[in-house]
Amino acid sequence: MSKIIFSGVQPTGNLHLGNYLGAIKNFVELNNDKENQCIFCVVDLHAITVKQDKDELKNNIRETAATFIASGIDTSKSIIFNQSEVHAHAEGSWILSCMAPMGWLNRMTQFKEKAGKDKEKASVGLYIYPILMASDILLYDATHVPVGEDQKQHLELTRDIAQKFNKDFNCENFLKVPEPLIKKKFSRIMSLKDGLKKMSKSDPSDLSRINLTDSKDEILNKIKKAKTDSYPIPNEEIKLKDRPEAQNLLGIYSSISNQTLDETLNEFGGKNFSDLKVQLAEILSNKISPITKEIKKLTNDKEYLDKILLEGASKAEEIAGQKIKEMKKIIGF
Ligand code: AQP
């Protein structure tokens, strides 16, 4: 059976190596499999769960679409669109909000992390963010959802919501229960400054992440300054226990080189981090620079990007529009 793949990325700027290795690199592999129907969404409705600057948001939407294309997603095969152009996403989100119990949402760790100590001031949108995500996925009958490890809990919630809807309305299998596609290894890339913190767009320190728009010199400088520890690189994975920064750099090297951690440890075991850093900066530059160049070229052609997004939205609308119609009928509207 062919797979229907759905995933999204927020247009919140600073797309980084974590987004690439955790998600976008997988999108490209899935796009390259002829059997798959892939739908990749710039989730701008999710982005506004925290305050956005109007002009920056517009640019970030285009830049996220440009990153998909520059990384290798073929728009003649896969659909790329932005969420706010397809009304069914917001409508579906409301319907699903009315069936998802608060208790399920209260368990979501991303909300707790992002809302921080002052939960009272966090937007309601941030709280129901995972329901919009469920709506995105379920409207396309997605069979598989490629995401980084940080989104695992939201996908489990999506599965629960789909099952509850089908049960509540006695419509077995109407909402398809999707499978997460999360890489077993290197699915959470950590900050270059703190191996216990996720690499993230909103980290105030630019040195904590490799942006997909960084120059070779910036990559070199960031890798050089990346936190390590004072022990040499071990030969065995077990000896990486309690060494989060070492694990992260070796994981990044393995992931970007498409090799196992064992192979990386064979290559660098016994050496110093300075040796690893030289080679890591080089391979990162070689892999990322062509993408960076293409992102820059594409973002200069706004008309082209807008056309791709509009065409994608029209194809997405055909699928999601039909599903929401059926969903409303089931409910009794
Ligand atoms: N550090 C990461 N490692 C692996 N995968 C990651 N992803 C994000 N960070 C990492 C995956 O990238 C996809 C898109 O994520 P997003 O658009 O939700 O963005 P984000 O980077 O998590 O950024 P936020 O939420 O805008 O910013 P922060 O985290 O700074 O508050 C997803 O598949 C995600 O798993």
Layout of SSEs?
Blueprint: E1 4-9, H1 17-31, E2 37-42, H2 44-47, H3 54-71, E3 79-82, H4 88-97, H5 102-106, H6 109-115, H7 124-127, H8 129-138, E4 144-146, H9 152-168, E5 179-181, H10 216-225, H11 244-256, H12 261-268, H13 273-299, H14 302-331
Parallel strand pairs: 1-2, 2-3, 4-5
The chain binds adenosine-5'-tetraphosphate.
Strand order of the largest sheet: 1-2-3
SS element count, helices: 14
> Residue share in helices?
40-55%
The CATH fourth-level homologous superfamily of the largest domain:
HUPs
The CATH topology of the largest domain is Rossmann fold
Which distinct ligands sit in these coordinates?
adenosine-5'-tetraphosphate
Which oligomeric state applies?
A: single chain
- Under the CATH scheme, which architecture of the largest domain would be assigned? 3-Layer(aba) Sandwich
Percent strand: 5-15%
C-alpha Rg (nearest Å): 20 Å
* Overall form: globular
CATH top level label of the largest domain = Alpha Beta
Could you name the ranges where pLDDT drops below 50 across 5 or more consecutive residues? none
Domain tally: 2
> What is the number of E strands?
5
Q: SSE order in H/E notation?
A: EHEHHEHHHHHEHEHHHHH
What's this, in brief?
By secondary structure, the protein is mainly alpha-helical. It is 53% helix and 7% strand. The protein is built from 14 helices and five strands.
Overview of this structure, please?
- The chain has helices at residues 17-31, 44-47, 54-71, 88-97, 102-106, 109-115, 124-127, 129-138, 152-168, 216-225, 244-256, 261-268, 273-299, 302-331; strands at residues 4-9, 37-42, 79-82, 144-146, 179-181.
- The chain folds into two domains: 3-188 and 302-331, HUPs (Rossmann fold, 3-Layer(aba) Sandwich); 206-297, Tyrosyl-Transfer RNA Synthetase (Orthogonal Bundle), CATH 1.10.240.10.
- Helix content is 53%, strand content 7%.
- The protein has 333 residues and is mainly alpha-helical.
- The structure holds adenosine-5'-tetraphosphate (AQP).
- Adenosine-5'-tetraphosphate (AQP) binds at residues 9-10, 12, 18-19, 22-23, 147-148, 150-151, 187-189, 198-202.
